Structures are given as structure tokens and as C-alpha cells.
Amino acid sequence: MKSRYFRWLGYRQWLISQTKGEALFPIWKWVRLLGLPLALLLGQPVWAEATPLSEQLEIELRSDATAALDDYLQQQGWPSTQAEYQIWLSPAVVHLPSCQQEIRLQAGGQYRQPWGRRPYLVECTEPAWQLRARVEVSLMMPVWVTAREIQKGRAIQPADLVEKELDVSRLQRGFIPSNHSPVGSKSNRHLRMGQLISELDLQKAWAVQEGEGVLIRAGQAGFSATTRGKALESGAIGDGIRVRNNQSGKEIQAWVIEKGEVETRF
Residue limits of the SAF domain (predicted)? Predict the structure, then answer.
């Protein structure tokens, strides 16, 4: 014990000499003065203790992220699939009182797809406080990749495709889910074997070509009518395009519903 004590005194004297004689402040006094946990100073991880508020926020954040994902999958017509959610809350949550009103969640930024890293601002009005949070959404989905090499301009055949399940939240480019078939579409560029296929790799299949005649369907509250028109733009099914009504001569907005057919929406 004495040898350890004398070694410590020697180390302390060396520190004093390196700091030009300035008095050393014991580390325990720095801990007490700054209110810092010793584990933090020693480089050890510090985990916030779970509280009823943090548990409530985790449930609400998970529910919000799940609803956003489910809505998006339904809108796109993609299959429902299993997702994983990792939730991060600011350590300040352990110092906040429970919210007496409904908690408000605001997803930060503009996100086309509801997966990947999604920041949130959590707000309470009674008592008033704000908290930063984040939800990491990982989504596994079966998508199409090439089973063999595909030359530019060639129409894709069933034998050119193989289904593969990938974490789409990690993909840097688009993809085509396996329940949407790209068979018959032509490749915009040369595709290697095993390459992920995205919509940008394919020439869009126009259901209506610019300049051709189209059938315009219109309907509202039980009333329906048809007339002829001319497409002023090309469009695939689901696209909104400009169309000129042959009878009135007016230019209108319509949506492509079938090959050579469009409909107006009110």
C-alpha cells in the first residue's frame, strides 16, 4: 500500500512540474463542481434510466412511425411487411414532468419514404416543454434484381428477374417491389446480372401518347358522360396530363386510366 501511495505522490509531483507549478484540482472536486457523472469522465457509457414518460413516448413514436409506413405501403399498393423500429430520446427526458395534455409529435424534414432515420420534435403544452427524438425504421421487402445480363433497349422477360429480400431503408436508389412486375418494359441502360432494378432503369410504358386521340370520361354524383379529345402530353396509367376537349376546344387536366382513356376529377 505504501509503495502505491508513494508512486501516486511521484505522479502528482510530475503533473505539477508539467503545469508550471499550478495547483492541481482533484478530479473528485471537478466531478462535484460540474455535476458530471464519473462514468462520463472516464469515457464509460451513461444510460438514462427508463421513466413512465420515456416509456409513453416510445410507444407513441413507434405508433406514429408505424401508421406513416402502413399508409405509404397502402398508397403504393405494396405488400405489408415486417419493419423494425429503434427509438432514441434525448437524455433530457429523465428531467421532464409527465404531460397533462395530448403529446404532439412533429416529424422533421420532408420525407418521401417513411423509413430510415426520422427525426421528431415532441411537444407538450401542459406543462410546456419540448424534446428531440428519432426513430430508425428498417424495412425488409422482396424486390426484383436481374437474373442475368440485360442489354439496353431490350424488353424484360420473366427469366430476366429474380426476387430478393433486401432492407430497402439502406438502399440509395429506387427499387421495384416483387408484387409489381416490370415484364415487358424496356431497359434504359445496360444492366448487369444481380443488379437491383429501379423504375429509372426502365422506359416508361405510355398508355397515352402526346398528340393522339383519347376518350375523356367525366362523372359526378351519379352522372357520367364521355367525349373525345386530344392528348397534349404523354402519360402512363395514373399520370395527370393536359388534354384538349374536341367539342369545346378547352384544355383540361385529366388522369390516364386505361390505354387511350382518361378521366376528369372534381
Answer: 141-203
